[in-house]
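Internal ticket - ligand job 371, pyridoxal-5'-phosphate:
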Amino acid sequence: MKDTIPLFSGYPRLAGNLSRAALGTFPTPVEKLTRFGPEIGLEELYIKRDDQSGEEYGGNKVRKLEFLLGHALASGRKSVLTFGFAGSNHALATALYSRQLGLRCVSLLLPQPNALYVRKNLLLSYGAGAELHFCRNMPDLLMKAFSILFLKRLGEGCTPLVIPPGGSSSRGITGFVNAAFELREQIRAGKIPEPSRVYVAMGTMGTAAGLVLGFAAAGLRSRVIPVRVVDEKYADSKKLLHLVQKTNTFLVRHDPSFPRIPEAGKDVVISQGYFGRKYALFTGEGMVALSRLREQERIILEGTYTAKALAALVDDVQAEPAKNEVVLFWNTYNSRDASGKTAVEDYRRLPRGFHRYFEEEVQPLDRLYSS
Ligand SMILES: *Cc1c(COP(=O)(O)O)cnc(C)c1O
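stdout (C-alpha coordinates):
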Protein backbone atom coordinates (compact mmCIF):
# COMPACT_ATOMS: atom_id res chain seq x y z
CA MET A 1 0.00 0.00 0.00
CA LYS A 2 1.13 3.55 -0.65
CA ASP A 3 0.18 4.55 2.84
CA THR A 4 3.60 4.44 4.40
CA ILE A 5 5.65 7.57 4.17
CA PRO A 6 9.47 7.77 4.04
CA LEU A 7 9.78 9.23 7.56
CA PHE A 8 7.76 6.34 9.02
CA SER A 9 9.77 3.72 7.13
CA GLY A 10 12.92 5.08 8.75
CA TYR A 11 11.34 5.59 12.17
CA PRO A 12 8.53 3.06 12.64
CA ARG A 13 7.89 4.22 16.19
CA LEU A 14 6.81 7.59 14.83
CA ALA A 15 4.20 5.74 12.81
CA GLY A 16 2.87 4.21 16.00
CA ASN A 17 2.93 7.42 18.00
CA LEU A 18 1.78 10.06 15.51
CA SER A 19 -1.62 10.02 13.88
CA ARG A 20 -1.78 10.93 10.25
CA ALA A 21 -4.68 11.30 7.84
CA ALA A 22 -3.65 10.38 4.29
CA LEU A 23 -4.98 13.45 2.50
CA GLY A 24 -2.38 14.09 -0.17
CA THR A 25 -0.75 12.47 -3.18
CA PHE A 26 2.91 11.73 -2.51
CA PRO A 27 5.66 11.84 -3.58
CA THR A 28 5.10 15.08 -5.46
CA PRO A 29 7.07 15.16 -8.74
CA VAL A 30 10.43 16.86 -9.19
CA GLU A 31 10.92 18.31 -12.65
CA LYS A 32 13.71 20.04 -14.48
CA LEU A 33 12.95 23.55 -15.69
CA THR A 34 14.50 23.09 -19.12
CA ARG A 35 13.57 26.52 -20.49
CA PHE A 36 13.51 28.80 -17.46
CA GLY A 37 16.77 27.39 -16.00
CA PRO A 38 19.05 28.03 -18.99
CA GLU A 39 17.39 31.44 -19.42
CA ILE A 40 18.77 32.52 -16.07
CA GLY A 41 22.09 30.76 -16.66
CA LEU A 42 21.37 27.59 -14.72
CA GLU A 43 21.43 24.23 -16.50
CA GLU A 44 20.35 22.31 -13.43
CA LEU A 45 17.31 24.08 -12.05
CA TYR A 46 14.55 21.84 -10.70
CA ILE A 47 11.13 22.41 -9.18
CA LYS A 48 9.43 20.39 -6.45
CA ARG A 49 5.78 20.20 -7.44
CA ASP A 50 4.13 20.53 -4.05
CA ASP A 51 1.50 22.46 -5.98
CA GLN A 52 0.23 18.95 -6.81
CA SER A 53 0.28 17.67 -3.23
CA GLY A 54 -3.47 16.95 -3.12
CA GLU A 55 -6.26 16.06 -5.51
CA GLU A 56 -8.70 18.58 -4.14
CA TYR A 57 -6.23 21.31 -3.27
CA GLY A 58 -2.43 21.34 -3.40
CA GLY A 59 0.30 23.52 -1.93
CA ASN A 60 2.45 23.23 1.16
CA LYS A 61 -0.37 23.10 3.72
CA VAL A 62 -1.44 19.57 2.80
CA ARG A 63 1.68 17.95 4.31
CA LYS A 64 1.08 19.77 7.61
CA LEU A 65 -2.65 19.06 7.67
CA GLU A 66 -2.10 15.32 7.32
CA PHE A 67 -0.60 15.35 10.82
CA LEU A 68 -2.77 18.10 12.30
CA LEU A 69 -6.15 16.82 11.15
CA GLY A 70 -5.03 13.24 11.79
CA HIS A 71 -4.43 14.28 15.38
CA ALA A 72 -7.78 16.10 15.56
CA LEU A 73 -9.59 12.91 14.57
CA ALA A 74 -7.52 10.66 16.83
CA SER A 75 -8.18 12.92 19.81
CA GLY A 76 -11.91 12.87 19.20
CA ARG A 77 -12.33 16.52 18.19
CA LYS A 78 -15.33 17.59 16.19
CA SER A 79 -13.92 20.88 14.97
CA VAL A 80 -10.72 22.83 14.41
CA LEU A 81 -10.01 26.52 14.95
CA THR A 82 -7.39 28.25 12.85
CA PHE A 83 -6.09 31.71 11.95
CA GLY A 84 -4.71 33.67 9.04
CA PHE A 85 -5.10 36.71 6.87
CA ALA A 86 -8.26 37.14 4.80
CA GLY A 87 -6.88 35.38 1.71
CA SER A 88 -5.08 32.65 3.66
CA ASN A 89 -4.25 29.55 1.59
CA HIS A 90 -3.85 27.77 4.90
CA ALA A 91 -7.38 28.60 6.03
CA LEU A 92 -8.72 27.38 2.69
CA ALA A 93 -6.75 24.13 2.75
CA THR A 94 -7.92 23.55 6.32
CA ALA A 95 -11.54 24.18 5.34
CA LEU A 96 -11.42 21.80 2.36
CA TYR A 97 -9.65 18.93 4.11
CA SER A 98 -11.62 19.31 7.34
CA ARG A 99 -14.80 18.86 5.35
CA GLN A 100 -13.35 15.74 3.73
CA LEU A 101 -12.81 14.27 7.19
CA GLY A 102 -16.12 15.39 8.67
CA LEU A 103 -14.59 18.03 10.95
CA ARG A 104 -16.01 21.51 11.30
CA CYS A 105 -13.60 24.34 10.53
CA VAL A 106 -13.66 27.80 12.08
CA SER A 107 -11.25 30.43 10.70
CA LEU A 108 -10.44 33.79 12.25
CA LEU A 109 -9.10 36.09 9.56
CA LEU A 110 -7.25 39.40 9.71
CA PRO A 111 -7.20 42.24 7.15
CA GLN A 112 -4.67 42.21 4.30
CA PRO A 113 -4.09 44.04 1.00
CA ASN A 114 -6.66 43.15 -1.63
CA ALA A 115 -5.99 40.68 -4.45
CA LEU A 116 -8.05 38.41 -6.68
CA TYR A 117 -6.95 35.32 -4.77
CA VAL A 118 -8.42 36.79 -1.58
CA ARG A 119 -11.88 36.77 -3.19
CA LYS A 120 -11.40 33.29 -4.55
CA ASN A 121 -10.12 31.81 -1.29
CA LEU A 122 -12.89 33.38 0.78
CA LEU A 123 -15.60 32.06 -1.54
CA LEU A 124 -14.03 28.61 -1.62
CA SER A 125 -13.65 28.44 2.17
CA TYR A 126 -17.25 29.51 2.56
CA GLY A 127 -18.34 27.00 -0.07
CA ALA A 128 -16.50 24.30 1.88
CA GLY A 129 -18.70 25.07 4.86
CA ALA A 130 -16.10 26.84 6.99
CA GLU A 131 -17.28 29.27 9.63
CA LEU A 132 -15.44 32.51 8.78
CA HIS A 133 -14.96 35.44 11.14
CA PHE A 134 -13.53 38.78 10.13
CA CYS A 135 -11.21 40.16 12.81
CA ARG A 136 -10.23 43.84 12.76
CA ASN A 137 -6.97 43.28 14.65
CA MET A 138 -5.19 40.94 17.08
CA PRO A 139 -7.15 41.90 20.21
CA ASP A 140 -10.39 41.35 18.28
CA LEU A 141 -9.09 37.98 17.07
CA LEU A 142 -8.10 36.84 20.55
CA MET A 143 -11.45 37.82 21.99
CA LYS A 144 -13.27 35.91 19.27
CA ALA A 145 -10.96 32.92 19.68
CA PHE A 146 -11.73 32.57 23.39
CA SER A 147 -15.44 32.95 22.95
CA ILE A 148 -15.48 30.36 20.14
CA LEU A 149 -13.43 27.89 22.19
CA PHE A 150 -15.83 28.33 25.08
CA LEU A 151 -19.00 28.04 23.00
CA LYS A 152 -17.78 25.04 20.99
CA ARG A 153 -16.79 23.28 24.17
CA LEU A 154 -20.29 23.69 25.48
CA GLY A 155 -21.86 22.70 22.18
CA GLU A 156 -19.60 19.82 21.15
CA GLY A 157 -18.46 18.49 24.51
CA CYS A 158 -14.79 19.09 23.69
CA THR A 159 -12.61 22.00 22.66
CA PRO A 160 -11.79 22.44 18.97
CA LEU A 161 -8.21 21.59 18.02
CA VAL A 162 -6.36 24.88 17.77
CA ILE A 163 -4.20 24.96 14.64
CA PRO A 164 -1.68 27.83 14.66
CA PRO A 165 -1.30 30.14 11.63
CA GLY A 166 0.12 28.26 8.66
CA GLY A 167 -0.18 24.97 10.57
CA SER A 168 3.34 25.56 11.86
CA SER A 169 3.36 23.62 15.12
CA SER A 170 5.89 20.80 15.63
CA ARG A 171 3.18 18.34 14.65
CA GLY A 172 2.42 20.17 11.40
CA ILE A 173 6.10 20.72 10.63
CA THR A 174 6.62 16.94 10.84
CA GLY A 175 5.03 16.87 7.38
CA PHE A 176 8.00 18.78 6.02
CA VAL A 177 10.54 16.67 7.88
CA ASN A 178 8.97 13.83 5.93
CA ALA A 179 9.21 15.90 2.73
CA ALA A 180 13.00 15.96 3.14
CA PHE A 181 13.09 12.16 3.39
CA GLU A 182 10.83 12.03 0.34
CA LEU A 183 13.33 14.15 -1.59
CA ARG A 184 16.16 11.83 -0.49
CA GLU A 185 14.28 8.91 -2.04
CA GLN A 186 13.89 10.86 -5.27
CA ILE A 187 17.62 11.64 -5.27
CA ARG A 188 18.44 7.97 -4.71
CA ALA A 189 16.08 7.00 -7.51
CA GLY A 190 17.94 9.34 -9.87
CA LYS A 191 15.05 11.77 -10.39
CA ILE A 192 17.23 14.71 -9.35
CA PRO A 193 20.90 15.09 -8.34
CA GLU A 194 21.37 16.22 -4.74
CA PRO A 195 20.66 19.95 -4.84
CA SER A 196 23.16 22.30 -3.25
CA ARG A 197 20.47 24.89 -2.57
CA VAL A 198 16.73 24.74 -2.01
CA TYR A 199 14.73 27.98 -2.27
CA VAL A 200 11.44 28.22 -0.42
CA ALA A 201 9.08 31.05 0.55
CA MET A 202 8.98 31.63 4.31
CA GLY A 203 5.89 32.87 6.14
CA THR A 204 5.14 31.11 9.42
CA MET A 205 8.47 29.29 8.92
CA GLY A 206 7.11 25.74 9.23
CA THR A 207 8.01 24.67 5.71
CA ALA A 208 11.57 25.95 5.98
CA ALA A 209 12.01 24.59 9.53
CA GLY A 210 10.83 21.11 8.52
CA LEU A 211 13.15 21.00 5.52
CA VAL A 212 16.14 22.23 7.55
CA LEU A 213 15.63 19.55 10.20
CA GLY A 214 14.69 16.90 7.66
CA PHE A 215 17.75 17.45 5.45
CA ALA A 216 20.01 17.26 8.51
CA ALA A 217 18.33 14.07 9.75
CA ALA A 218 18.36 12.51 6.29
CA GLY A 219 22.06 13.27 5.85
CA LEU A 220 21.54 15.56 2.86
CA ARG A 221 23.89 18.47 2.39
CA SER A 222 21.30 20.63 0.65
CA ARG A 223 21.19 24.15 2.04
CA VAL A 224 17.72 25.62 2.60
CA ILE A 225 17.39 29.27 1.55
CA PRO A 226 14.19 30.61 3.12
CA VAL A 227 12.94 33.73 1.42
CA ARG A 228 11.17 35.91 3.96
CA VAL A 229 7.79 37.21 2.77
CA VAL A 230 6.37 38.42 6.10
CA ASP A 231 7.45 41.19 8.46
CA GLU A 232 10.73 40.55 10.24
CA LYS A 233 9.01 40.57 13.61
CA TYR A 234 7.29 37.28 12.69
CA ALA A 235 10.19 35.50 11.00
CA ASP A 236 13.90 35.73 11.76
CA SER A 237 16.81 33.31 12.23
CA LYS A 238 16.30 33.05 15.97
CA LYS A 239 12.65 32.09 15.64
CA LEU A 240 13.47 29.68 12.84
CA LEU A 241 16.16 27.99 14.92
CA HIS A 242 13.73 27.71 17.83
CA LEU A 243 11.14 26.04 15.61
CA VAL A 244 13.70 23.59 14.20
CA GLN A 245 14.87 22.61 17.68
CA LYS A 246 11.36 22.37 19.10
CA THR A 247 10.36 20.05 16.27
CA ASN A 248 13.48 17.99 16.84
CA THR A 249 12.53 17.57 20.50
CA PHE A 250 8.98 16.65 19.51
CA LEU A 251 10.20 13.90 17.17
CA VAL A 252 12.73 12.50 19.65
CA ARG A 253 9.96 12.39 22.24
CA HIS A 254 7.79 10.35 19.88
CA ASP A 255 10.68 8.11 18.77
CA PRO A 256 13.89 8.09 20.83
CA SER A 257 15.76 6.66 17.84
CA PHE A 258 15.20 9.88 15.88
CA PRO A 259 18.54 11.78 15.91
CA ARG A 260 19.00 14.76 18.17
CA ILE A 261 20.72 17.41 16.05
CA PRO A 262 21.62 20.46 18.16
CA GLU A 263 23.36 22.21 15.27
CA ALA A 264 20.39 21.93 12.89
CA GLY A 265 19.15 25.39 11.95
CA LYS A 266 22.17 27.28 13.28
CA ASP A 267 23.71 28.29 9.97
CA VAL A 268 20.59 29.08 7.91
CA VAL A 269 20.89 32.35 6.02
CA ILE A 270 17.52 33.94 5.34
CA SER A 271 17.07 35.80 2.07
CA GLN A 272 15.90 39.24 3.19
CA GLY A 273 15.59 41.55 0.21
CA TYR A 274 12.37 40.35 -1.42
CA PHE A 275 9.61 41.06 1.08
CA GLY A 276 8.77 44.48 -0.34
CA ARG A 277 6.83 46.94 1.78
CA LYS A 278 4.21 44.77 3.36
CA TYR A 279 2.80 41.25 3.66
CA ALA A 280 0.76 40.34 0.56
CA LEU A 281 1.76 43.50 -1.30
CA PHE A 282 3.17 42.21 -4.56
CA THR A 283 6.58 43.39 -5.80
CA GLY A 284 7.58 44.30 -9.35
CA GLU A 285 10.50 41.86 -9.41
CA GLY A 286 8.31 39.09 -8.01
CA MET A 287 5.71 39.60 -10.71
CA VAL A 288 8.37 39.65 -13.45
CA ALA A 289 9.72 36.31 -12.20
CA LEU A 290 6.16 34.94 -11.98
CA SER A 291 5.29 35.91 -15.54
CA ARG A 292 8.56 34.50 -16.95
CA LEU A 293 7.89 31.14 -15.29
CA ARG A 294 4.31 31.18 -16.55
CA GLU A 295 5.38 31.88 -20.12
CA GLN A 296 8.27 29.45 -20.26
CA GLU A 297 7.07 26.56 -18.14
CA ARG A 298 3.30 27.03 -17.78
CA ILE A 299 3.61 26.96 -14.01
CA ILE A 300 1.49 29.44 -12.10
CA LEU A 301 2.78 31.16 -8.97
CA GLU A 302 1.14 33.91 -6.85
CA GLY A 303 2.39 37.29 -5.68
CA THR A 304 2.41 36.93 -1.88
CA TYR A 305 4.84 34.02 -1.43
CA THR A 306 6.17 32.09 -4.39
CA ALA A 307 6.79 35.01 -6.79
CA LYS A 308 9.00 36.66 -4.17
CA ALA A 309 10.89 33.40 -3.52
CA LEU A 310 11.53 32.89 -7.22
CA ALA A 311 12.74 36.49 -7.61
CA ALA A 312 15.33 35.81 -4.87
CA LEU A 313 16.52 32.67 -6.66
CA VAL A 314 16.84 34.47 -10.00
CA ASP A 315 18.82 37.35 -8.47
CA ASP A 316 21.16 35.07 -6.51
CA VAL A 317 21.92 32.94 -9.54
CA GLN A 318 22.59 35.97 -11.69
CA ALA A 319 24.68 37.82 -9.11
CA GLU A 320 26.85 34.78 -8.50
CA PRO A 321 26.75 32.44 -11.46
CA ALA A 322 26.04 28.92 -10.30
CA LYS A 323 26.66 27.14 -13.58
CA ASN A 324 27.47 23.76 -12.15
CA GLU A 325 25.20 23.87 -9.18
CA VAL A 326 21.97 21.96 -8.78
CA VAL A 327 19.27 24.31 -7.48
CA LEU A 328 15.75 23.33 -6.41
CA PHE A 329 12.77 25.67 -6.22
CA TRP A 330 10.21 24.29 -3.77
CA ASN A 331 6.81 25.31 -5.12
CA THR A 332 4.52 25.86 -2.15
CA TYR A 333 1.48 27.17 -4.05
CA ASN A 334 -1.57 25.19 -5.12
CA SER A 335 -2.21 24.44 -8.80
CA ARG A 336 -5.44 22.47 -8.51
CA ASP A 337 -8.42 24.26 -9.90
CA ALA A 338 -11.07 24.38 -7.22
CA SER A 339 -12.93 27.30 -8.80
CA GLY A 340 -15.87 25.24 -10.03
CA LYS A 341 -17.12 25.08 -6.50
CA THR A 342 -17.24 28.82 -5.94
CA ALA A 343 -19.41 29.77 -8.87
CA VAL A 344 -22.68 29.57 -6.98
CA GLU A 345 -21.60 31.54 -3.96
CA ASP A 346 -22.52 35.18 -3.60
CA TYR A 347 -20.05 37.22 -1.56
CA ARG A 348 -22.88 38.97 0.24
CA ARG A 349 -23.47 35.77 2.16
CA LEU A 350 -20.06 36.20 3.80
CA PRO A 351 -19.78 38.16 7.05
CA ARG A 352 -19.95 41.88 6.39
CA GLY A 353 -16.26 42.57 7.13
CA PHE A 354 -15.19 40.58 4.06
CA HIS A 355 -17.36 42.48 1.56
CA ARG A 356 -14.69 45.11 1.06
CA TYR A 357 -12.48 42.62 -0.80
CA PHE A 358 -15.19 42.28 -3.43
CA GLU A 359 -16.24 45.90 -3.56
CA GLU A 360 -12.82 47.54 -3.53
CA GLU A 361 -10.28 47.37 -6.36
CA VAL A 362 -7.39 44.91 -6.09
CA GLN A 363 -3.77 46.10 -5.96
CA PRO A 364 -2.52 47.35 -9.35
CA LEU A 365 0.24 44.73 -9.81
CA ASP A 366 -2.36 42.00 -9.43
CA ARG A 367 -4.50 43.44 -12.24
CA LEU A 368 -1.48 44.03 -14.41
CA TYR A 369 -0.20 40.45 -14.21
CA SER A 370 -3.43 38.47 -13.91
CA SER A 371 -4.06 36.52 -17.05
C1 LIG B 1 1.62 29.34 3.62
C2 LIG B 1 2.40 29.48 2.37
C3 LIG B 1 3.80 29.61 2.39
C4 LIG B 1 4.58 29.76 3.65
O1 LIG B 1 4.82 28.58 4.32
P1 LIG B 1 5.20 28.64 5.87
O2 LIG B 1 5.32 27.24 6.27
O3 LIG B 1 4.09 29.37 6.53
O4 LIG B 1 6.47 29.40 6.00
C5 LIG B 1 4.47 29.66 1.19
N1 LIG B 1 3.80 29.64 0.03
C6 LIG B 1 2.46 29.57 -0.03
C7 LIG B 1 1.80 29.59 -1.36
C8 LIG B 1 1.72 29.48 1.13
O5 LIG B 1 0.38 29.41 1.06
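Auto-summary: The longest strand covers residues 79-85. The beta strands are 30-32, 44-49, 79-85, 104-110, 131-134, 161-163, 197-202, 223-228, 326-331.
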